[in-house]
Design goal:
By secondary structure, the protein is an alpha+beta fold. It has 4 domains: about 130 residues, Fumarate Reductase Iron-sulfur Protein, Chain B, domain 2, CATH 1.10.1060.10; about 90 residues, FAD/NAD(P)-binding domain; about 160 residues, 3-Layer(bba) Sandwich (FAD/NAD(P)-binding domain), CATH 3.50.50.60; about 100 residues, no CATH class. It contains 16 helices and 23 strands. Strands 10, 11, 12, 13 and 14 form a 5-stranded antiparallel beta sheet that branches. A 4-stranded parallel beta sheet has the order 5-4-3-6, sandwiched between helices. A 4-stranded antiparallel beta sheet has the order 17-18-19-20, with no helix packed on it. A hairpin with a 5-residue loop joins β19 and β20. α5 packs antiparallel against α6, α7 runs antiparallel to α9 and α14 crosses α15. The chain starts with 5 loop residues before the first helix and ends in a 5-residue tail after the last strand. The relative contact order is 0.07.
Amino acid sequence: MSKLRGFIEFNRITEENIPVHSRVKNYKEFTLKPSDKELEKQGSRCMDCGVPFCHSGCPLGNMIPDFNDAVHRRSWREALDILHSTNNFPEFTGRLCPAPCESACVLGLISPPVSIELIEKYIVERGFSEGWIKAKVPMGRTGKKIAIVGSGPAGLAAAQQLNYAGHSVQIYERDKKVGGLLRYGIPDFKLEKSIIDRRINLMIEEGIKFITSTEVGKDIDIEELYAKNDVVLLCGGATIKRGLPIPGADSKGIIQAMDFLKNQNQIIDEKIDMHSSLNAKNKNVIVIGGGDTGSDCIGTSNRQGAKSVVNFEILPKPPKQRSNENPWPYWPFTLKSSSSHEEGSKRKWSILTKEFISDKNGKLTGLKTIEVEWKKIDGQKSRLIEIDGTEKIWILDSESYEEINHLEIVTNNKKIKNINELEIVDNQIYANTYQFNNDVCVIINKDTGEVTGIINFKGLRDKVKDHPELDVLNGIAYNKKRKTFFVTGKKWNKIFEIRIFKD
């Protein structure tokens, strides 16, 4: 058992970081190791709960109180054995895991939780530095052959366990090097690739074979794998990129995160040349998405020399502490700032990208956004609500993507504040006029913001007679194929397709 009053005597600590101005000059890890004495104190903060909720928080089922106690007692070798009994690669999880175990820590009810992930990381690093972690070659072989497709975390863990059981294992990887998203999706400043190579070399010593630059189904037929092996295990991972289902998403200047991150990792690890379209140097970058991947893109952009970085997040800004609706031991929806955010980025909350705007050559020149809120409905999931009158056109420089301006809509020298449902057609903006005139759509000069025309849709109301509560015009969408507009209103039970003619 850990120290009885350790959680009272000692405060939680985290890793210190190299200062921002130094660490953004390279792609190396920038955390500073606490002393062994401090880590032993952190282990003593564990209360060795009768019901350790950290177990339920850990997807791997790590025996957390046990290795915390071993660290407290300075039995580091024992702690390593306990950790490896449930976790093949604690050097990865100790750096990358979001640590749900810490959010489930019982101590978190009254005090900051135990620094579980910190302890885990330095248990395994102590194991490597002391030479305790060595190749474990099976005593014998079963004669069974297993082919594993994909060398990401799942493929590697499966290979190690099956090899320990005595089976002969081959891993097929389509990329040049082993590791999957560990190698190509995680920046070096979070996981230096030498950490991966260190483990891979041990696995090779254990008898696992790696076949790289080979795509199953293309370079080798799946039937051939079935014929040569007793089992084929598919561990392809999440390699299909998810695009944004909004107009203009294919514009030049819009980059997928996985393309961006992979290219930078290859530059460092495989010494390839920088792809110009994936270089953020001297550019103004907007990162859409506030999760771990977005954070990685921010950190990479800063290191490449971006002029500025703005981060769009569709969710509202979380509170600094748990709300009553988010009690322990659920995952805490509280404000978190990653190391990348600290290095430099402007965060914009509750904002939704509606459209990307491009010039006639398909090059990105702007984007359209709207503010949103999440409405809670009893017994149902929260709904995303667009806030009328908050749409904004961001005008960008086509080379640097710097925000040059944003449009303010005027007519007769008076500003129109509440416009929404913006559509850009033939270099003009068509928009509803929320709380200005409930029946009209305005035509706006895309360059100046001046209203150049008004379309009155009042006559459409007469065609919606059977609806009990006629409300305002509140919907306009352009159909590029038919060159028509779809028009409707709030609470209308009909949608009209119209074509606009100019005299």
